[in-house]
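I am writing to request your help with a piece of structural work I have in hand. Here, with my thanks, is the record as I have it:
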Amino acid sequence: MVIASTNDEKSHMLAKLMFPLRPANCPIPDEEYDDQLLLPCDIMEDQIFRHIDQLSPYKAPGADRIPNVMLKRSANIILPFLLQIFRAALVLEVYADQWK
């Protein structure tokens, strides 16, 4: 039994436990899955609205510091803009690090 005493040792043990290495005898499939992704034009405002609607309103804001309650209350105003942002991100293949 190994005992971790420092935060660094604890984080390495947790990473090994939660994210084990892929077994050597596990082949990677040859198929490509690109055709399963939505085309940028396939994203619709109602999909974005459903995701916003499911947000917990008073959860702590993320890196963007935008509270969920603000997103929920202004959804009908910002939806066209969010739609353009998401479509542009898919077309240009430029994503925020948090989205990867």
